[in-house]
DNA sequence: TTTCCAAATATAATCCATTTCATTGTAAAA
DNA sequence: TTTTACAATGAAATGGATTATATTTGGAAA
């Protein structure tokens, strides 16, 4: 009886092997059969359990290597209820900022044995929800997200993701959501940028402010406002919802008509638009009109005149977000920004190597 | 007996439900139990099989919606042996070219119901192999890849990926590998760029040639060479392995010392380096020295003087690669390049709106 | 009325790794 | 010698969906 069973098992093995030549799918059962042990032992041996004899582990590892075994992670994930995939959701990967955040996160996550699934939302809430559901259905180990502009609040996020998957928000965050958050020091950064403009002698400083449903942009607006206040200047003009070159251009014209001699822009592309607006009105930069952008996009250092920009530290933000996920720690991590002073805001040459004065919040 | 079994089933359901409140994992078995049918019927109903009564299908769909069911794709993938994930492997996602390819591929794949897993190799063969294994282990539906510079040939690729996963190569391809390929028309593009320089009156045109283990760079070199030949000019200087700003700068200096009055560069960053080299030698651009780069990076249109560049069409390449995967068709797809004529190569003003003359290969 | 076919559904195997619980064997303690 | 404890491994259940095969049912044809 026992012999018969062995016989039939052998047959099964032969059949399996003939399949193997077609597609190389070695399972732990194959290894177990080859060694005369059970799949559970093989599983334990391969996953580093202390509950197998060292000798057995070596035999299993050797046989696994010999047969070209590779763990079927799909099956493994199903059983364990989670995968080694971490999802990252960003508005647009081709934005320098986001691709660097991804790079930073990846550098940490890859070393920790995770791989990274990237989703773009194109700033649409609907796409964000879909991405969250996709990630949940794939049972990802965690999600790092920077919200689409179209997302108004965090309620929908939890519905779509569920509450058992760790969530780390970065850059654009909703305070009301649980989990870790990583943000730039937007207030302090905008404060420094504005103060720099004041120190360069600009006296009528407006701002291109971005979207107010983003806490990052809101904080930059407040930093700008506080700097003006602390410097004894009157309230300046605010141009909302300016993110891209075109709206930056239009807002730039309005700012010039309103008498501004400088702008702090919460984005680089809108700042570029403002530069073009100033040029179209015959103003010289930085002599007649000063500009500081935000994000330190590649082009800012290559254009003429080179553009001052408040640099985010996306790579570090990505690293921090990944760390927060790995450590499972809640709370807010603040990544400092750095003001890159270039030609567009520097009419006082002795100030070229300015180091900004931190404000007391 | 039957009654007893039903009873115990009811208990099980109640227990399940109490779990449900903790974590919402509704399975097809739950739906089946609620409706008094079997899981197989529910599965068929939800996957659109014609083998269920319309009435049953509606009841299942309604109950699924009511209970908040979402398919466990991990389990589904395990059974079906493949997933709805398509892997994209690129050297660096923050490169404009690659992030746009990804965007193009994503636009097609998402519409077809796939999601996209992105891997970076940082130009390292080792990382490329690891990415391929990761994707295979996750049983992705297909892989789109642009090889790392470190990858010398295609042999290792098949070993790592296996032969049952569709592979589409783009931009940097190995001809010897099976499967679809999508490439830019590098020969024609470089030919047009070089011819443009000749038409602007440059007579000693060198090239910054990139890495010769990449067929794309090799084709650009040949296009440049053929244009010189067809134009009756002698062989020009070739500077290999110049990709980044620094090597472009060094090669630029050498080219100037060798008497070149223009360069066709197979990359934009190296072209930028060459611009700086020319400036450092006091040459005016484009009057004394002409340059055309390749890739149409964002900064090329924003710098001063703006830089002519041979534009790739990365978004379209991504679309084509995704289409090739979806259609399962082998063969090579060629995406045309477009010469963007800007200031750095235009000393003949009547030529500003040049449209390039195609060459006969 | 019986027979047969097709539609609809049920049963059970399958995908593969993991994990709980049970069993065996061996050495140390009583 | 017997009990105790532990190490090592086996057996079987589990995760959730899919699918090959089997069964039931209803209606048409004989």
Could you outline the blueprint of secondary structure elements for this entry?
The structure is a homodimer of 361-residue chains.
Chain A: H1 2-22, H2 28-35, H3 39-46, H4 54-67, H5 73-80, E1 85-90, H6 96-111, E2 115-120, H7 125-137, E3 142-145, H8 155-161, E4 167-170, E5 180-184, H9 186-199, E6 205-210, H10 215-230, E7 238-240, H11 245-257, E8 262-265, H12 268-280, E9 290-294, H13 298-302, E10 308-311, H14 314-327, E11 331-335, E12 338-340
Parallel strand pairs in A: 1-2, 1-3, 3-4, 4-5, 5-11, 6-7, 6-8, 8-9, 9-10
Antiparallel strand pairs in A: 10-12
Chain A binds a DNA duplex (30 and 30 nucleotides) through helix 3 and helix 5.
Order of helices and strands of chain A: HHHHHEHEHEHEEHEHEHEHEHEHEE
Largest sheet of chain A: 6 strands, parallel
Distance between the termini of chain A: 83 Å
Helical coverage of chain A, percent range: 40-55%
Strand content of chain A: 15-25%
What Rg of chain A is obtained from the alpha carbons, in whole angstroms? 28 Å
Low-confidence stretches of chain A: 1-23, 351-361
Mean pLDDT of chain A: 88
Oligomeric state as shown: homodimer
């Amino acid at each position: 009886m026992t012999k018969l069973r062995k016989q039939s098992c052998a047959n099964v093995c032969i059949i399996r092997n003939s399949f193997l030549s077609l597609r190389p799918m070695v399972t732990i059962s194959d290894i177990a059969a080859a060694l005369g042990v059970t799949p559970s032992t093989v599983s334990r041996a391969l996953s580093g359990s202390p509950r197998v004899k060292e000798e057995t582990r070596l035999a299993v590892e050797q046989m696994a290597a010999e047969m070209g075994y590779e763990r079927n992670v799909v099956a493994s994930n199903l059983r364990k209820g989670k995968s080694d995939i971490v999802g990252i959701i960003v508005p647009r990967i081709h934005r320098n900022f986001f691709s660097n955040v991804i790079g930073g996160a990846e550098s940490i996550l890859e070393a920790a044995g995770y791989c990274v699934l990237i989703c773009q939302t194109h700033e649409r809430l609907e796409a964000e929800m879909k991405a969250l559901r996709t990630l949940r259905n794939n049972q990802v180990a965690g999600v790092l997200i920077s919200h689409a502009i179209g997302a108004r609040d965090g309620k929908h996020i939890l519905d779509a993701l569920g509450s058992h998957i760790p969530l780390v928000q970065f850059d654009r965050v909703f305070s009301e959501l649980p989990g870790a958050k990583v943000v730039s020091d937007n207030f302090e950064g905008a404060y420094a940028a504005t103060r720099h403009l004041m120190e360069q002698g600009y006296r009528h400083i407006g701002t291109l402010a971005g979207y107010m449903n983003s806490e990052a942009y809101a904080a930059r607006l407040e930093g700008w406002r506080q700097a003006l206040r602390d410097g004894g200047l009157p309230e300046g003009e605010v141009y909302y919802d300016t993110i891209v070159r075109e709206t930056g251009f239009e807002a730039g014209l309005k700012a010039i008509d309103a008498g501004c001699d400088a702008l702090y822009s919460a984005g680089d592309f809108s700042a570029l638009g403002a530069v073009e607006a100033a040029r179209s009105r015959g103003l010289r930069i930085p002599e007649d009109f000063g500009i500081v952008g935000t994000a330190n996009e590649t082009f800012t250092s290559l254009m003429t005149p080179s553009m001052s920009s408040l640099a985010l530290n996306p790579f570090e933000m990505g690293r921090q977000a990944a760390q927060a996920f790995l450590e499972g720690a809640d709370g807010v991590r603040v990544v400092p920004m750095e003001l890159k002073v270039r030609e567009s805001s520097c009419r006082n040459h002795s100030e070229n190597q300015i180091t900004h004065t931190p404000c007391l919040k």
